[in-house]
Amino acid sequence: MNANDLALVLAVFLAAAVESVEAVTIVLAAGTARDWRSARQGVAAALLTLAAIVAVLGPAIAVFPIDSIRLAVGALLLLFGLQWLRKATLRASGFKPLHDEDAIFREELAAAKAARGEKRAGIDDWYAFTLAYKGVLLEGLEVVFIVLTFGALQNRIALAAGSAIAAVLIVSIVGILVHKPLARVPENTMKFVVGLTLTTFGIFWATEGTGVVWPWGDATLVAILLLVAAKCAGLVWLLRRRHSAQLAAGLTPKAKLARQPKLPKPIQFVYDFVVSDDWPTAVVLYLALVASAILAAQGTPVLWLVGFAVVAIHALRLIRFS
After folding, report:
1. How many angstroms separate the CA atoms of 86 and 89, rounded?
2. What separation in angstroms does the CA of 139 have from each of 3, 108, 168, 226?
3. For residue 155, with 0-12 CB atoms within 10 Å meaning exposed, 13-18 middle and 19 or more buried, which class applies?
4. CA distances (Å), 251 to each of 87, 132, 187, 321, 322, in order?
5. How many angstroms separate the CA atoms of 111 and 105, rounded?
6. Which of 27-31, 181-185, 291-295 shows the highest mean pLDDT?
7. CA of 320: how far to CAs of 4, 132, 246, 263, in Å?
8. Phi, psi for 123 (deg, rounded to 5)
9. For residues 238 and 227, what is the distance between their CA atoms, to the nearest angstrom?
10. Quick check: helix, strand or coil at residue 120?
11. pTM for the whole structure
12. Which parts of the chain fold into alpha helices (H)?
């Protein structure tokens, strides 16, 4: 197993583990407060839906030219990675509370207990079914995307799928055995690592997709990873100082978010997928990709354009909204 395979296994395993922790928390709340049989049926239905999505999208990916796949996948991975990094950086610096699965479990449990019971389509408790179904489906979609894209671009779908399945099984078994949310999982650290990995591969593949050839080949991944990690470490240090200064001044530090548009549900789903939760970052990313492609087509490729643009806008947005 080479370095690329190890990076793939690590990224997919950690991403699947994080999403599985959140999905297990929701399912436990549905089963504990409502009906375990209906919750299990919701999980089964969600897994069948995800399997159908994989069956459709898996072969479809192979139809497109590899450069187009690199460009599209790299852009989306960058949006995912930057989103994970932003939240992990804000949590590490104190501007955002650490992810608390116990608190989330209590909230989901209270909401489930308060909801009205209803039998529908042969399901004893429709609320428990839909809660478990939505939880597993929404958390699983991002894992499916990562598995398909990482696997397709490196021709290692089986390895990526195996890594994801292992993470899901481990988290699910532990969740079932302890029958409580996995509050002790170092989720913020895991999200930092996944965010770094997704951002690194996103920069690498998106830049290649615009027609730029990395002179050092796959070894460039290490350099990109170190640069992104150094940037994040510097941001955490800077934001921690700002957080401490605000506390000392009697202020209540709190991160602000970009204002999001209100769209119809189908459009909102697509918007969230291709824009994420920070539209200025997405705009800068897409403009940088277009500029990189134009320059590469003119015979003057710029290696650092995409990476510099996304790193700069990510840092500026964090500093601006903290």
Report:
1. 5
2. 27, 15, 11, 28
3. exposed
4. 21, 40, 28, 15, 12
5. 10
6. 291-295
7. 35, 37, 14, 26
8. -95, 125
9. 17
10. strand
11. 0.77
12. 3-33, 36-61, 66-93, 101-114, 126-153, 157-178, 187-209, 220-248, 265-275, 279-297, 305-320
Residue type, position 206, single letter: A
Sorted by sequence, the CB contacts under 8 Å of residue 312 that are 6+ apart come out as none
With contact defined as beta carbons under 8 Å apart, do 165 and 14 qualify? no
Show Cβ contacts of residue 26 under 8 Å, excluding neighbours closer than 6 positions.
108, 131, 132, 134, 135, 136, 139
Q: What is the pLDDT of residue 203?
A: 93
**pLDDT at residue 30, as a whole number:** 79
Q: Which of the four pLDDT bands, split at 50, 70 and 90, describes residue 116?
A: low
Q: How confident is the model at residue 182 (pLDDT cuts 50, 70, 90)?
A: low
pLDDT in tens, 263-320: 776 676 667 767 777 788 888 999 999 999 999 999 888 889 999 999 899 888 888 7
Residue type, 252: T
Query: What's the rounded Cα separation, in Å, for the pair 179 and 131?
Result: 17
Q: Which two tokens stand for residue 74?
A: 């790299």
Length of the chain: 322
Query: Which two structure tokens, joined as six digits, stand for 101?
Result: 């699965």
